[in-house]
Amino acid sequence: MNYTYHYNSPLGGITLASDGGGLTGLWFDGQKYFGSTLGKNAVQKNLPVFEQTAEWLNIYFGGKNPSFTPPLSLNATPFRTSVWEILLSIPYGQTITYKEIAAKIAAQQELPSMSAQAVGNAVGHNPISLIIPCHRVVGSDGNLTGYAGGIEKKEKLLMLERSANL
């Protein structure tokens, strides 16, 4: 069974999804790939994981780094999961490039190289935005590139984190 919950953020509505235990989705309403992990018969319900996630979001949008991660329930390929695990390790207020992630994946898999485009695809399909911080991934030149929630939101999220780190 899939469950949903709605959260109102300073950047617009956010829909959360859960399998009843862990968080399976967190999307800005209307973003690209919205609801990618939702089944057809999702039921709106308040669950402990949604309360934890709302607390995390309140802290985050309050300009602070949350000191915990709500329980996550990821169902993806091993490649995507490994990319998302790297995203979870990006420190609050910092960024990493697609190329740097590709190099880390290549090293983990003992490969000579890894496609930054493949990494970009995995980053773009991250179903748990913000908590798995895909907004912290930038182009090799430092430019803001692709974000399923939109570049304007990505810019605001990075500015929020940088101002909190000052």
Structure at a glance:
By secondary structure, the chain is of the alpha/beta class. The chain is 36% helix and 16% strand.
Q: Which structural class best describes the helix and strand composition?
A: alpha/beta
CATH fourth-tier homologous superfamily of the largest domain: Winged helix-like DNA-binding domain superfamily/Winged helix DNA-binding domain
Low-confidence spans: none
Strand content: 15-25%
Q: Quaternary arrangement of the chains shown? A: single chain
Which CATH first-tier class of the largest domain would you pick? Mainly Alpha
User: Main β-sheet, in a few words?
Assistant: 4 strands, mixed
The appropriate CATH architecture of the largest domain is: Orthogonal Bundle
N-to-C span: 43 Å
CATH topology of the largest domain: Arc Repressor Mutant, subunit A
The global form is: globular
| C-alpha Rg (nearest Å) | 15 Å
Overall pLDDT metric? 90
Please report the total strand number as a whole number: 6
* Count of discrete domains: 2
Output the strand order for the largest sheet: 3-2-1-4
Q: Figure out the total of helices.
A: 5
- Share of helical residues: 25-40%
Order of helices and strands: EEEEHHEHHEH
Protein described:
Strands 3-2-1-4 form a four-stranded mixed sheet, with helices on one face. The protein has 166 residues and is α/β, with parallel strands linked by helices. The chain is built from five helices and six strands; from the N terminus they run ββββααβααβα. Helix 2 packs across helix 3 (98-108) and helix 3 crosses helix 4 (116-124). The protein has helices at 48-61, 78-88, 98-108, 116-124, 151-164; strands spanning 3-9, 12-18, 23-28, 43-44, 96-97, 137-138. The protein is 36% helix and 16% strand. The chain folds into two domains: 3-61, Methylated DNA-protein cysteine methyltransferase domain (Double Stranded RNA Binding Domain, 2-Layer Sandwich), CATH 3.30.160; 78-164, Winged helix-like DNA-binding domain superfamily/Winged helix DNA-binding domain (Arc Repressor Mutant, subunit A, Orthogonal Bundle), CATH 1.10.10.10.
